[in-house]
Amino acid sequence: MILQVDKIEKSFGARTLFSAASLQVNAGERYALVGPNGAGKTTLLKIIMGLESADSGTVAYAKDVKVGYLEQESKLASDVSVIDEVMRSAHEIQELGKRAEELQLAIAEAGEKGDAPDQLLREYGQVQDRFERLGGYELESNARQILAGLGFPVSEFNKPCREFSGGWQMRIALAKLFLRRPDLLLLDEPTNHLDLESVQWLRGFIASYEGAVLLVSHDRAFMDACVDHVAALENRRITVYAGNYSAYLKQREDNLEQMRAKRAAQEREIAHMQVFVDKFRYKPTKAAQAQERMKRIEQIKSELVILPEGHKHVDFKFPEPPRSGDMVVKLEGVAKAYDDKLVYDNIDLRLYRGDHVALVGPNGAGKSTLMKMLAGIEGPTRGRRELGVNVGVAYYAQHQLEGLNEGRTVLQEIDSVAPGWTTPQERSLLGAFLFSGDDIEKRVGVLSGGERARLALSKMLVSPEALLCLDEPTNHLDIDSVDMLENALKNFPGTIVLISHDEHLVRAVANRVIDIRDGRMTVIDGDYDYYLWKREDLAQRAAEAQAAVPSAPARAAQAPSQPAAAPREKKTKEQRRAEAQARAELNKRLKKRRVRLKDLEASLEASQARYDELMALMASEELYAQPDKFDAAMKEYSALKKKIPAIEEEWLSLSEEIEQEVADAQS
């Protein structure tokens, strides 16, 4: 046991957040803490850290456990460089290093006078062992690896902390935590200010982390990749599920079915007995039986199954934007520079009606800069931007949260941008963004970060334009809000340009991907899965081409016998666009089959692993002494013997089918 939360109670006025909430986290376990906004996830983390007090209940740690906590907001005003700030955070490692040096000196001095005392040698051995285990000798290289993984360019390692924006400050705080390698990591929305590539690095880091982890996140793909338990805040208590987030959803639904069935049976029994009570309670001959049934009704009511609050699911469809021309926005010969730094040089880009474009690439590569140029927020240094016919632009970024009027209510804030809307229409829109009941009368000044983000989004989408530019729209949103936004964006008929660290959202929305890195912009006409495949394929081809390149002398020897390469025929824009459209259509046709192929691969891997476990189990003599367990193992073994060949056959057939269709399309 690393952490024990026992029967925590917490209320704010008449509102109860937790009632007898309990949780145990053991060494090496990785938990996701989930629940809707306002359920108390951040409050629970603060109670665990001792930053807030519970009304009752206890929080206990194992002896000598070291805890690291990442809050949603972090600010460093230091003039210390990033690399030094991160290394300074490893207090224990640095103290151990100093102590090892002191002991070395003491042992050397004692050796000059005679034999060094055993006590000094023992302590030196213990200190040295712990110093090595905590990575003391690799402290700086580990710090550099972590900073690079979180997206910091090497050129900025020596930049003062105070010069970084809020998002980068959060990354510095993450790096400090990871370098310390605490026994328990508490992370509150760690992906909020990361790009997709940093999120992928982070989930790999957490998946292999030796300590225990308890994290709050709205990113489903992230939780699926790196947690093995889910702690769900339901009905003011904590319910624990084994497995990742997808497994939790399935288990939760299975449990809910059982709970609904049991509650329905209880309600039927109450109704049946109530009929008898109502009919015979005043008849002397039946009064005793009626009283008995009344007691039984009260007992059942006290044991009545309480169903967890359902996820708030609202189907929301954007109002139709003004219909634009086919071409929505184009950049021609565009260059962009800041001071002496050239971000883009001579780029061309056209976006069309119905394009849902995801901008991907490492932080600092220029994704936000490209979006701002497309939106007209910033102009190019050279070249030109042109909007299509009847194209308006709506731009969303986190700084828009600061533009909200803190003195207004939620309803007043929407009313300020919705002239001509009736109050019921405004309430309907706010309901889609999960503001209901008295929430719409809240002052903006008391809203949480997530509530502010939802309000800013709803303001922008009251009357959406033909071109939506969204820079990290899911930051501070809970999973229900992200679901609502995802469904609305998928069905939006206009053009979308999206930057998001949420892989699930990008995978669901994008039908084109623009990869930005090393000053280059690569347009992939297809969804995110196709982009990942294409990127891997291109990297593999580049590696093969590099390996196949002969040495300079060999090239010189071959040169006379090699015929001159025929000039490559230049394709017209119409040809390129037709090819891109064909690729997108092929990718769309193959999407479901590729997803099915991935599911089959995962199922096959899990089934084979379980088959191997059963084979080892059935080799144990102890199993034969337990008939029930033996029968269960044999039954499962027989089922897997049939299941695995069926999965393999479907996988092979589907793989060949996809390969053939791709080959036909390329021929």
Would you kindly provide a written description of the structure presented here, covering whatever features stand out?
It is a single chain. It is built from 21 helices and 18 strands. The protein is of the alpha/beta class and 667 residues long. The strands form 4 sheets. It has a 6-stranded mixed β-sheet, sandwiched between helices. Strands 14-15-16-12-17-18 form a 6-stranded mixed β-sheet, sandwiched between helices. The chain has a 3-stranded antiparallel β-sheet with strand order 2-1-4, with no helix packed on it. Helix 7 packs parallel to helix 8.
Helix/strand structural class: alpha/beta
Low-confidence parts? 559-568
Strand order of the largest sheet: 5-6-7-3-8-9
The number of distinct helices, counting runs of at least 4 residues, comes to 21
Q: For the record, give the distance between the C-alpha atoms at the N and C termini, rounded to a whole number.
A: 60 Å
Give the quaternary arrangement of the chains: single chain
Q: Biggest β-sheet, characterized?
A: 6 strands, mixed
Helical fraction equals 40-55%
Task: Give the overall shape, derived from the CA principal axes.
Answer: globular
Strand residue percentage: 15-25%
- Average pLDDT figure: 83
Number of strands: 18
Gyration radius, in Å? 31 Å
Structural descriptors:
667 residues, alpha/beta, 6-stranded mixed beta sheet, globular
SSE map:
Layout: E1 3-12, E2 15-25, E3 30-34, H1 41-49, E4 56-61, E5 67-70, H2 82-88, H3 91-113, H4 118-133, H5 139-149, H6 166-180, E6 184-188, H7 196-207, E7 212-216, H8 220-226, E8 229-234, E9 237-242, H9 245-280, H10 287-302, E10 327-338, E11 341-352, E12 356-360, H11 367-375, E13 382-387, E14 393-396, H12 410-415, H13 423-432, H14 449-460, E15 467-471, H15 479-490, E16 495-499, H16 503-509, E17 512-517, E18 520-524, H17 528-548, H18 552-558, H19 573-618, H20 621-624, H21 627-666
Parallel strand pairs: 3-7, 3-8, 5-6, 6-7, 12-16, 12-17, 14-15, 15-16
Antiparallel strand pairs: 1-2, 1-4, 8-9, 10-11, 10-13, 17-18
Helix pairs in contact: 2-6, 3-4, 5-6, 7-8, 9-10, 19-21
